[in-house]
Amino acid sequence: MPDADDVSDALTSLRESGDIPWNDIVDETRFINNYAGYLNLAEGLLEKLRYIVELDYWGGKYPLILTESRSLAGTLRPLCNEYRVLLASTNGQCTGFFHTRVKPYLDRKLHRKVIGTVLYLGDHDKAGNDIEAHSQATVDNAGYALSWERLAVTEAQIVQYGLTPIDKIDTRYKPHRKYKATECEALSQKLIFDIVREALEELLPEPLPSVLAREKKQRELLEAAIQAALRNPLVARYFGTE
Question: How is the chain split among helix, strand and coil, in percent rounded to 5?
Fold first, then answer.
């Protein structure tokens, strides 16, 4: 069995050869914080316009992708970014995280009189089922009428893909108890991507190409308006762009 160094060397070689794009592998342990500013706000606005100004695909009714594990959430981050949805990981039973981080987004939905959908991905075992039940109960007890759908792992998927459960230890009990578990990792990353993508496509109120075309037009008009304003000598002098 290869060790961690062998796997790291192999992945680096595949990325350097171009067989795997660099951004397809997410390193959750390393990051860069960019706190640098711009010479003037106009320069910063034009630079960021293509990245921070995006239309809502969902008309306010955006789904929440909720995963049991942090690693699965990291895997799904590019897909959730593509579809502009909420993504969160419970990483176990975490009522505090719900109230401090998730609840503000749900409150925003209710303020806009929109009801959203939770798409859940977790292990098929006693602990995983307990975590899902606790998460759903936390949402329900807070008074939110959100639809809830488990995307993975389901009984049907276990049968369809011939998934083999593994033995796990439940440390919540003393003495510890053994049980059978079918983890999300039993499904390939591509299959999980396909499952989530299909679910999101079914929920979309409007095809993505039409939204992106409208977004592109609005962004071009906004950029042209800013550029026109900067050609005014008084505005240019104020922003230091003359």
Answer: 55, 15, 35
Is residue 184 within 8 A of residue 192, CB to CB? The reply is: yes
Q: Are residues 180 and 224 in the same domain?
A: no
CA distance 127 to 178: 11
Query: pLDDT at position 162, please?
Result: 94
Amino acid letter, 161: Y
Is the distance from CB of 171 to CB of 140 less than 8 angstroms?
no
Shared-domain flag, residues 42 and 74:
no
Q: Output the CA angle 113-143-195, nearest 5 degrees.
A: 75
Burial 109-126 (b: 16+ CB within 10 A, else e): beeeeeebbbbbbbbbbe
- CATH number of the domain residue 200 falls in: 3.40.50
Secondary structure letter of residue 184 according to DSSP: G
| Residue 89 to residue 159: CA distance in whole angstroms | 26
**Considering the entire predicted model, what is its pTM?**
0.75
Residue among 122, 117, 91 at smallest CA distance from 106: 117
Q: Which tokens belong to 234?
A: 């008084």
| pLDDT at res. 37 | 86
DSSP output for 68-116: SSHHHHHHHHHHHHHHT-EEEE-SS--HHHIIIIIHHHHHHHHHTT---
Residues of the chain with pLDDT under 70: 1-2, 4, 26, 28, 92-97, 99-101, 105-115, 142, 145, 172-173
